[in-house]
Amino acid sequence: MDHLIGIPISRPTAKQKHGTFTRSVFFAPEVTENEFLTVLVAELPPGTKGPVHLHAGEEVVYTLKGVLEIEIEGRTYRMEPGSFSLIPSRTKHPATVVSEEPWVGICVFCDQCQVIKKYTDLRFETDGEMGYKEGAKTN
C-alpha cells in the first residue's frame, strides 16, 4: 500500500460489472491493498433497480449525474447531482435510477474494517453480490 500513499489516482484501479451497472474502483482492500475503505464510482443505466443490500459500516454516496431514488429505513430520498447521502450501518438500501440519463455517483464504505467485522453478526458474501447479507458472525 505504501506505493499509493499521497499519490493522486486519476484512473480506476479496477472495473467491476454487477448486472447492468459498472463500478470503477479507485481504492479497495482487495485491489489496492489499503486497509479498510472502498472508494468507487458507480454508473447505473436509466431504470436500474439496485439490489437490496447493506454494509456493516456506514456508506457515503455523492451524486455526480442523473437522479437516484434510494430507500433508507422505509423512506425514499431523491439523490440529484451535488447531493450527499449518509447511509447508516447495517441498513438495507435499495435504489432505483429515475432519470432518463445514467446515474453516476461516488460511493465510500468500509466492508473490510476488522473492528466492524469482529462485532457484527453479518457476513460478507463474495459470490458476486454486493454488501453484506444477514447471517453468521464473521469471526
User: How big a fraction of the residues is strand?
Assistant: 35-45%
CATH class categorisation:
Mainly Beta
Label the structural class: mainly beta
Number of helices: 2
* SSE succession: EEHEEEEEEEHEE
The radius of gyration is 15 Å
Distance between the termini: 25 Å
How would you sum up this structure in a few lines?
It is built from two helices and eleven strands; from the N terminus they run E-E-H-E-E-E-E-E-E-E-H-E-E.
List keywords for this structure.
disordered C terminus, single chain, mainly beta, Jelly Rolls, 139 residues, 3-stranded antiparallel β-sheet
What does this structure look like?
The chain is mostly beta strands. The chain has one domain (2-134): Jelly Rolls (Sandwich), CATH 2.60.120.10. The protein has two helices and eleven strands, in the order ββαβββββββαββ. It has helices at residues 29-32, 114-118, and strands at residues 14-18, 21-27, 38-44, 59-65, 68-72, 75-79, 84-87, 95-97, 103-109, 122-124, 132-134. The strands form three sheets. It has a six-stranded antiparallel beta sheet. A three-stranded antiparallel beta sheet has the order 6-5-8, with no helix packed on it. The protein is globular. It starts with 13 loop residues before the first strand and ends in a 5-residue tail after the last strand. Mean pLDDT is 80; it is low at 124-130 and 132-139.
What's the topology here?
Elements: E1 14-18, E2 21-27, H1 29-32, E3 38-44, E4 59-65, E5 68-72, E6 75-79, E7 84-87, E8 95-97, E9 103-109, H2 114-118, E10 122-124, E11 132-134
Antiparallel strand pairs: 1-2, 2-3, 3-9, 4-7, 4-9, 5-6, 5-8, 10-11
